[in-house]
Amino acid sequence: MMMDTGLVSGIKKQLVGSIGYLWIDWDSRRIEIGYWLGSNFEGKGIMTKSCKAIIKHAFNDLHLAKVKKGLLETTRCFTINTLTG
Q1: Beta bridge pairs of residue 68
Q2: Sign of the CA dihedral 45, 61, 26, 28?
Q3: pLDDT of 27-75, one tens digit each?
Q4: Alpha-carbon distance 21 to 33, whole Å?
Q5: Nearest 5 degrees, angle CA 79-CA 33-CA 60?
Q6: Kind of pairing between the strands at 30-37 and 66-69
Q7: Which of 15, 80, 83, 20 is nearest to 54 (CA)?
Q8: 36 with 50: CB under 8 angstroms?
């Protein structure tokens, strides 16, 4: 199962990135999320806020036990990983 959500700028109503569940293992209650963000929108807290929201949803609403974040090897991705646990 894959769920992907586009992130839209509130001002210009343009797609700025995406975040979603790459896979869900219901038996072991684990999930992996993936995300991307346009380079013009980096450093504004958009993805940190989005990661926190989707992780909260995974634990509180889907009652999953573990969330794994798929990371690209960039400084920004490691920063987001640090800020969101």
Answers
A1: 32
A2: positive
A3: 999 988 888 888 888 888 888 888 889 889 999 999 999 888 765 544 4
A4: 4
A5: 100
A6: parallel
A7: 20
A8: no
Please write the tens of the pLDDT for every residue from 19-33: 888 888 999 999 888
Number of domains in the chain: 1
The dihedrals phi and psi of 71, each to the nearest 5 degrees, come to -115, 135
Tokens of 52: 């926190």
Do residues 32 and 23 make contact, with C-beta atoms less than 8 angstroms apart? yes
The residue range of the domain holding 65 is 3-84
Q: How many CB atoms lie within 10 A of CB 38?
A: 14
To which residue do tokens 């109503």 refer? 13
Q: In whole angstroms, give the CA distance from residue 58 to residue 24.
A: 10
Cα–Cα distance, 7 to 73 (Å, whole number): 21
* Residue in this structure with the two tokens 């586009």, named with its chain if needed: 6
